[in-house]
Amino acid sequence: DARVTQTPRHKVTEMGQEVTMRCQPILGHNTVFWYRQTMMQGLELLAYFRNRAPLDDSGMPKDRFSAEMPDATLATLKIQPSEPRDSAVYFCASGLGTGGRSNQPQHFGDGTRLSIL
Amino acid sequence: AQKITQTQPGMFVQEKEAVTLDCTYDTSDPSYGLFWYKQPSSGEMIFLIYQGSYDQQNATEGRYSLNFQKARKSANLVISASQLGDSAMYFCAMREGYTGNQFYFGTGTSLTVIP
């Protein structure tokens, strides 16, 4: 089965360090989403792309977060500088962007569990 | 207004019994899709079932079925013959609009199956 691949699975680093999370979407999928999940806030959409173009990053703190898709097989989410409040599980998901009537779900990666000390 | 509302933070069900997890949605678009995901304690998000706004029949996938009441804007997940492995968080999500890509997720319901 095709899967969304996220790396690293776990990351522990000190406050102020740069963190880069990577995502390989399922081949052929043209939409990519970044989510953050915490106990307090639940699942939050940070940014998403269609055909590699950013469509919405309003959920992302712009001063420290950035999301890019350098090519169709790689999406990245960077935090610089990182802060303890960024500790969360970050999910990447991909899908076929065909609109509201499509039965195609988003497929999630296993997530990156990030801890900022 | 919230696009997706899940009012049950936690639910308990006896093994082998059926359980209904509630989900209501808010949209003015006639074209939308509703999805349910399962998140076990291991953390991955697993797609379970889909219901389209134009579908005439309730969706079913094995032990999962969707009680779709369009007029009430509800899409409740029914799990029949609960198993211990069904213990997990369950999220309802919606994608709306002919060109919509974004999914709106609810806050989730934690289901515990009691032996």
Summarize the structure.
The complex is a heterodimer of chains A (117) and B (115). Chain A has 117 residues and is mainly beta.
Overview of this protein structure:
- The complex is a heterodimer of chains A (about 120) and B (about 120).
- With about 120 residues, chain A is an all-beta fold.
- In chain A, about 0% of the residues lie in helices and about 55% in strands.
- The termini of chain A are far apart.
- Chain B is globular, with a radius of gyration of 14 Å.
- Chain B has about 120 residues and is mainly beta.
- In chain B, the strands form 3 sheets. In chain B, strands 2, 5, 6, 10, 11 and 12 form a 6-stranded mixed β-sheet that branches. Chain B has a 4-stranded antiparallel β-sheet with strand order 3-9-8-7, with no helix packed on it. In chain B, strands 1-4 form a two-stranded antiparallel sheet.
- Chain B contains no helices and 12 strands.
- The mean pLDDT of chain B is about 95.
- Chains A and B meet through strand 5, strand 9 and strand 10 of A and strand 5, strand 6 and strand 10 of B.
The first-to-last residue Cα distance of chain B is 38 Å
Mean pLDDT over the residues of chain A: 92
Order of helices and strands of chain B: EEEEEEEEEEEE
Outline the biggest β-sheet of chain A.
7 strands, mixed
Instruction: Name the average pLDDT of chain B.
Output: 94
Shape of chain A: globular
- What's the shape of chain B? globular
Tell me which oligomeric state these chains represent: heterodimer
Q: Give Rg of chain A in angstroms.
A: 14 Å
What gap, in angstroms, lies between the N and C termini of chain A?
36 Å
Q: How much strand of chain A?
A: over 45%
The secondary-structure class of chain A comes to mainly beta
SSE-based structural type of chain B: mainly beta
Task: Break the fold down into its secondary structure elements and pairings.
The complex is a heterodimer of chains A (117) and B (115).
Chain A: E1 5-7, E2 10-13, E3 19-24, E4 31-38, E5 42-50, E6 53-56, E7 65-71, E8 74-79, E9 88-95, E10 107-108, E11 112-116
Parallel strand pairs in A: 2-11
Antiparallel strand pairs in A: 1-3, 3-8, 4-5, 4-9, 5-6, 7-8, 9-10, 9-11
Chain B: E1 4-5, E2 10-14, E3 19-21, E4 24-25, E5 32-39, E6 46-52, E7 60-61, E8 64-69, E9 74-79, E10 88-96, E11 104-105, E12 109-114
Parallel strand pairs in B: 2-12
Antiparallel strand pairs in B: 1-4, 3-9, 5-6, 5-10, 7-8, 8-9, 10-11, 10-12
